Amino acid sequence: MPVIRKRIIGVITVKNGWAVQSIGYRRYLPLGRPEILAENLDRWGADEILLQCIDRSAHGLGPDLSLLDRVGRLGLSTPLIYAGGIRTAQDAITVVATAADRVLVDSMLWDDPDEIGRSGEYLGNQAIIASLPLSIEGHEVRWLNYRTGISAPFSDRLLKDLAAGTISEALVIDWRHEGQPLRFDAALLDALPCDVPLIAFGGLSDAAQLSNILRSPRVAAVAIGNFLSYREHALQAFKQNLVGLPIRPATYQQSSDFCAP
After folding, report:
1. In the predicted model, what is the mean pLDDT of the chain?
2. How many Cα atoms sit within 13 Å of 169 on the Cβ side?
3. What kind of fold does domain 7-241 have according to CATH?
4. Residue 219, pLDDT score
5. How far apart (Å, rounded) are the C-alpha atoms in residues 119 and 68?
6. pTM of the model
7. Coiled-coil ranges per the record (predicted)?
8. What are the residue boundaries of the structural domains of the chain, listed by start?
């Protein structure tokens, strides 16, 4: 049987149109234009790029199609995941038609799960990823609604959709420790009772830590944001130190027109 390779996803967090370094989704430091970071991640050999516009849903805005169009015009070879402002199946379809390969959904999980099924009917379930910001409070796993700031137990409908394969993967976000080195809570990976493949995100910053997470049979990928931002060879260094894991080899493409973010 062919080996299923695990992935390292580079995350670009966008707020007010600019790429930012996020710390717990509460503090933000400017990084520059999202397009430049996308070019860099493509050049450095990321397996996927996640472009997450964190203020679109909170302000009742739809997807940032202008940004997507600019990124799409770069001709990147790396698959692109988009998140932010996706409220309906038509939004998801438009995002993929504009530039993205897959979509990451959050507010739809709370507001209208039926739209997720409709999205999968048009795009294929492999194109739909669930965004799950989680925390452990006491002995209970809680699911955060970013817009209200309120955490709640998993809904029966969410668990049903995950178990049914309506959603291809789940991005498990340790939102309390996002942006903090070495703080990802691996216990969150055991939170979901169904066998949906997982992407770990939040507080992942060290090769040994990544190796431990990627060895979990449930983990299909890790996502890294802040800890790729200031070190040009960080992604290659991570891959070179992940010995014995089924990942794509480290690559690096020189670019004569490179400019830092």
Report:
1. 88
2. 23
3. TIM Barrel (3.20.20)
4. 95
5. 18
6. 0.90
7. none
8. 7-241
